[in-house]
Amino acid sequence: MVSALTPSAELLPHPRHPAKRGLLGFRRDHSRAATSKVRVTMLSQQNPGGESAGTPPLYLGIDFGTSGARYALIDEHGAIHSEGKRAYCAPVGDAAGWASSWRAALFQLLADVPPAHRPSVSSISIDGTSATALIVDSETGELLGGPFLYNEGFPDALPAVESVAPANHTVCSPTSTLCKLVSWWAASGGAAAGAAVLMHQSDWLLWLLHGRPGGVSDYNSALKVGYDPELGAYPGWLTSQPYSRMLPAAVRPPGAPVAALRDDVRSQYGFSEDCVVCAGTTDSIAAFLAARRSEPGTAVTSLGSTLAIKLVSRVHVADARFGVYSHRLDDVWLVGGASNTGGAVLRQLFTDDQLAALSEHIDPAVPSPLDYYPLPKKGERFPVSDPDMMPRLQPRPGSDAEYLHGILESIARIEAKGYSLLKELGATAVEEVFTAGGGAQNDRWTAIRERVLGVASGRPSRLRRPMELHC
C-alpha cells in the first residue's frame, strides 16, 4: 500500500491549451543549412559558460528508466551543477514492489541533491516510461492496481478498446495505457472505481511531491490513454465510456507548473518555498528534448533497455498496426515508436565487461551475415506490432564476438526499418540522428548503425564521436 498523502498545494495558473510556439523552450535555427546527408551524432551536455553574478535559479529533472533513476540539476543555460543516479531496490518482487522501489529512488535522489543547491531549485519535473501506469485511490493514496509496465500487454481488453476507438488509433495496441485501464476496469467490475484514478508513472511520482488530488498528467504521457493533442482534450468516444471518470482530471503541457512543492517535502529537504512541481513527460521525449533541436528531419534514437526512435515531422502520423504514434512538440510533431529490442537483450547474454571486450574484436565496416530479431521475451511493439512475435537469436556461431556483431547489426536493422517506415507513412524524412542512452557509448555499435542507417536511407552518413547524454 502506498501511504495516504494530505494535499497541501494549490493548482497554479495555466493556459487551457498549450501555446503554439516556445512551449518546450525551442527556438528554431533557421540559419542551419539544409543537408542531404544523414548524420548520426551522440548527444552531449555542454557548459556554455560560467554562472552570472548571484545565485541563479536551478531546475531539477529526474529520469525514471527501466532499471534505475537519475537526476540532473541544471541552470537556465543547461549547464549541469549536480547529477546522480540510484538503482531500484532489489529484488523488486510483485507489481506493488515496483511502486515502492520508484518511491524510494525518488526520495533518495532528492536527498542526493547537494544541500547547498536545494534553496536555489526553482522547479522539479520527472519523466517516466511511456504507457507505465498505476491505479490509485485519490482519497487514501492506496495502490489499487498495477503498476502496469510499459511493455505489459492486455490483449483481453483490446476488442473493447477497438470497438470504441477509431481504426488503427494509438490506443489499439495491447500495451496501450487504455488497454491497461479497460482490463483493470473489467476485472474489478467498476466496483472499486469510486475514488480510483489512473496515473502514469511520472504523474504518480510528481503527485508524491505536490499532493494535488484528482490526477494531473501531461499530453505526452496521456497520448496512449487516448488524449488528443490536436484537440487539446479527451475525445468524445473516450469521455462517453464509464471508465473515463478514472482519467487524469487535468492534462498539461510538459513542463507547465502544476502546484507548489508539498510543505513537508520542502521542509524536510530544504527546498525553497517558491519551488514548483511541473508536469512531466515520457523518458524518450526527455531524451529528445536534451538534443535541443526541433528542426523537421531531426531524430533521436534512445538505446537503453529498449530501442525508441523519435523524429521531428511537419506531418502528424499514427498507425497502431505498426506501433507508430505522434507526440505534440510545439507546432510540429514528434513521430516514432518503441521496440522491445535493445540493451535488455544484451544484458541477458553478456556482462558489461564481456560487451566491452567482445566489441573490440568487431569490424563495424564488415556487414554481419547473421539475421536475428533480438527480443528479451515474446512480443514486439514497433516497427511491427505483434504480441506473439518470438525472439530470434539462432543460429549462434562459435565465436562470441561474431554473435555479438550479429545482434548489434540486427538491432541496427530494426532501427533503420523504423525510420524507413515513418517515411513510408508520410513523416518528414530523417536528416540527422542523435543518440541517447547507454548504447551510445559503444563506438563499434555506433559505426555499425552509421553504416546501416546510411544504407537504409540511400545516402551517405557521418558520425561524430559519441559522448555521454545527460537529460
Automatic annotation (TrEMBL):
Top EC group: transferase
UniProt name for this protein: D-ribulose kinase
E.C. code: 2.7.1.47
GO molecular function (one): ATP binding
Catalyzed reactions per annotation: D-ribulose + ATP = D-ribulose 5-phosphate + ADP + H(+)
InterPro entries given in the database record: ATPase_NBD
Domain of life of the source: Eukaryota
Residue ranges of the region described as Disordered: 1-20
Species this chain originates from: Zea mays (Maize)
CC cofactor: a divalent metal cation
Assigned keywords, A-Z: ATP-binding, Kinase, Nucleotide-binding, Transferase
Protein family membership: Belongs to the FGGY kinase family.
